[in-house]
Design a protein that fits this description.
The chain is of the alpha/beta class. It is built from 29 helices and 17 strands. The strands form four sheets. A seven-stranded parallel β-sheet has the order 3-4-2-5-6-1-7, with helices on both faces. Strands 8-13-12-9-11-10 form a six-stranded parallel β-sheet, with helices on both faces. β12, α14 and β13 form a beta-alpha-beta unit. The chain starts with a helix and ends with a helix. The structure holds adenosine-5'-diphosphate and zinc ion. Adenosine-5'-diphosphate (ADP) binds next to α3.
């Protein structure tokens, strides 16, 4: 009996059914046609070319930009019994020659290569000699010259089509916007490709965006609900990365730092540890993360505002690839916006770029300020319409809005009366009626606005100020050392022609699992189950013995299902999702033994 996509999915990978467009994508490729696949992180892109690789004659050549991760992907394929190898600079000459021989001799089903190697004359000649089943171009957005991940070598990949016009190609990316999509189609010469666009919703990710008040404390509160889990904490600077990592270590977390200023060796070591161990918190700049395939990252925290909605989506998307509940948390503040605006003004070359960068930042700030479902706002940015999700902070605890018209007038007047020459600190001092040195020096205690805001706290005023700036009623002039200035939009408010609804500041709440669990949305798990813990221990030991990441052996979701169903026989175990024939053979008895003891 010959194999079908579904029989391979079940026998080799141990999954009962395809997800979303996977089946159609597989069929398209098996039939020899090109495809462009846009699917969110964790959507299941890999199977889209792995199964066709098994069904077509020859070996699939997979182009991937990150050599560090090829190793783990190949390890995962070998675990399920597929002949896979990679070729990159981490191999010594003899091992590389061995892989090349196996490739030409038709012994491999999948070969992962870095783009620069693929384009060498040596590899091109190997391609002539070998039988190639298909080309898969992973992280295809690297071809986009406008994107953050641009890789010049990707531009050379269009040559594949010229030299091997009959070999089907599949390009895959998790970057959603239409401009990038068009660029991929053109630059990779994929004009006849069928385009598959999946929904970009990641329902298992819970979004939570907070105003920054005491960032360190807020982070620790958030992490209190994630002890023993793997996650990423993003910070905007190297210094902050170091400091935050230290603070987390002191608080008892296994935290590691990762940023561009560290030597390669330490960076690699930290990345390995994060990938291989169960509960490492990686504190990192944005230098970390592209191509991080670790499926069980339970949270991504942003200590600073990213640059765009795309960036936010991509970074938060590293959480919960395995489809299990995960959290995306961010604390942001006015200073983030101000710093970024200055950065854009000072660094971006021409006006068109500047406008586009400011526009992207505006969209992200809009998401942060959203008074209705975050997911609806996020997806609408990518052109999708959806319903309020019930799994974001706004849906769970809708913000309280208050009529801030009078407060806004007071603040705007203070800025105006002090001459639009001062930054937030001094303006608030005047508003609150503080007799500082500066207030004395400029005679600001004599102004009619002096102390008109004394009935509210500094914290409340900061929230008002932030909201007025992000809504464009005031702007921060970096050329004048951060002086606040009114914009035309402030006039109708000052004249009483327009009301201003403001979000009330959040009351500090501890995020505990119990609270999350009771608030609906994707379910949180009882990780205290002794059998689950025993299975994890067994998995860690086995992974250490084999020198591969724990998740390559079995995923958390699979362990959890085993713990819940307590299978007594190999046949029962085999029904659990995530256990294919090869894994059943390799680990079945050992798992049953753990279940029996537990
Ligand atoms: P992507 O590359 O799109 O981020 P992956 O290919 O790494 O996603 O898949 C994400 C996770 O989903 C992996 O752990 C994979 O094993 C799992 N997965 C993919 N397809 C299926 C399926 N049809 N059924 C169950 N799990 C799947
Ligand atoms: Zn929501």
């Amino acid at each position: 009996m010959s194999d079908t996509p579904l029989s391979l999915l079940s026998r080799v990978f141990g999954y009962p059914e395809f997800r979303g467009d996977q089946a159609a994508i597989v069929d398209n490729l098996v039939a020899g046609n090109d495809a462009l696949v846009l699917m969110p992180t964790g959507g299941g892109k890999s199977l889209c070319f792995q199964i066709p690789a098994l069904l077509r004659d020859g070996c699939a050549v997979v182009v991937s930009p990150l050599i560090a991760l090829m190793q783990d992907q190949v390890a995962a394929l070998k675990e399920v019994g597929i002949a896979a190898e990679f070729l990159n600079s981490s191999l010594d000459g003899a091992s590389a020659a061995q892989v090349e021989r196996e490739f030409v001799a038709g012994k491999l089903k999948l070969l992962y290569v870095a783009p620069e190697r693929l384009l060498t004359p040596r590899f091109q000649s190997l391609l002539e000699q070998a039988q190639v089943a298909l080309f898969a171009i992973d992280e295809a957005h690297c071809v986009s010259q406008w994107g953050h991940d641009f890789r010049p070598e990707y531009l050379g990949l269009s040559a594949l089509h010229e030299r091997f016009p009959d070999i089907p190609r599949i390009a895959l990316t998790a970057t959603a916007d239409t401009a990038t999509r068009a660029e991929i189609l053109t630059r990779l010469d994929l004009h006849d490709a069928r385009v598959f666009v999946a929904s970009f919703d990641r329902p298992n990710i819970r979004y939570h965006i907070s105003e920054k008040t005491e960032p360190r404390r807020q982070l620790l509160d958030f992490l209190a609900g994630h002890t023993g889990e793997a996650g990423i904490v993003y910070c905007s600077t190297r210094k902050k990365v170091e400091e935050t990592a230290d603070a987390l270590k002191q608080a008892g977390f296994t935290a590691l730092a990762y940023h561009g200023g560290m030597d390669n060796d330490t960076r690699r070591r930290h990345q390995q540890k994060f990938l291989r161990e169960d509960s490492v918190v990686m504190v990192a700049t944005l230098a970390f993360g592209m191509g991080i395939d670790k499926p069980d990252v339970r949270f991504v925290a942003h200590m600073d505002l990213p640059r765009s909605v795309e960036g936010y989506y991509q970074e938060t998307g590293r959480a919960g690839r395995d489809g299990e509940a995960a959290e995306a948390w961010m604390a942001w503040g006015l200073q983030d916006v101000v710093t970024q605006r200055r950065f854009i003004d000072e660094n971006d070359a021409d006006d068109a770029h500047k406008r586009s960068a400011h526009g992207k930042l505006d969209a992200l700030v809009g998401l942060c300020e959203a008074a209705s479902c975050r997911r609806v706002a996020l997806l609408s940015y990518f052109g999708e319409t959806s319903q309020a999700c019930g799994n974001c902070d706004v849906c769970i605890t809708p913000p309280t809005l208050w009529d801030g018209t009078e407060a806004s007038q007071k603040l705007l007047s203070t800025v105006y009366r002090t001459g639009q020459r001062f930054g937030a600190g001094h303006v608030l001092d005047v508003l609150l009626g503080k007799k500082t040195e500066k207030v004395e020096k400029f005679g600001h205690a004599d102004l009619s606005v002096f102390g008109i805001g004394a009935s509210q706290t500094d914290k409340v005023w900061r929230a008002v100020l932030r909201q007025l700036v992000v809504r464009g009623l005031m702007e921060v002039d970096h050329a004048a050392y951060g002086a606040l200035k009114l914009t035309a939009a402030a006039r109708p408010v000052l004249k009483g022609e327009e009301t201003v609804l403001l979000r009330a500041i959040e009351v500090r709440t501890k995020q505990r699992k119990s609270r999350l669990a009771s608030s609906g949305g994707a379910g949180y798990h009882d990780d205290e189950d002794p059998l689950f813990i025993a299975l994890r221990t067994w998995r860690r030991e086995t992974a250490n013995e084999k020198g591969i990441p724990a998740y390559v052996i079995l995923h958390d979701a699979t362990l959890r299902e085993i713990a819940a169903r307590k299978p007594a026989t190999l046949a029962e175990l085999g029904e659990i999702s995530g256990l294919g024939a090869k894994k059943l053979e390799a680990y079945g008895e050992a798992v049953l033994a753990v279940v029996e003891e537990g």
